[in-house]
Description:
Order of helices and strands: EHEHEHEHHE
Structural class: alpha/beta
Largest sheet: 5 strands, parallel
Strand order of the largest sheet: 3-2-1-4-5
Helix content: 40-55%
Mean pLDDT: 88
Number of helices: 5
Low-confidence stretches: none
Amino acid sequence: MYKHILVPTDGSRLAAKGIKQAVGLAKSLGAKLTGVYVVAPFAPPIYGEGSAYVAQALSPGDYKALSTKAAKKALSPIGRAARAAGVRYAERIVTDAQPWKGILQAARGGRCDLIVMGSHGRSALGGLMLGSETVRVLARSKIPVLVAR
């Protein structure tokens, strides 16, 4: 059935629901699991109509270091759960301004055949108004998506 499962995370409790389901499914199917964290690209702060930079803003190097640290922190629960379950595990950190695009990029690039994500379980209107990344992935993915509530 499924051989490679992608589980995106942002480090939230909501994402933990998807992680739990993904690890259990990967274990039962003998599938590989890949955790993905999407980082927004560095954008220097610009104020007003000109391009005046703030002297105390993060440098691109500092931003990358902080982003990598946040990604590792968010991905670590997946790694722990996968190791505890005896599931093969890999991590990816993807840079994209839109998380749903980064998730789909990671799924295609990793040749994943299933994406498992958590969801708030809001109505269609609530998801539309709040801009749910899960809804965007569902709407655009050609790969099956399992939504955990």
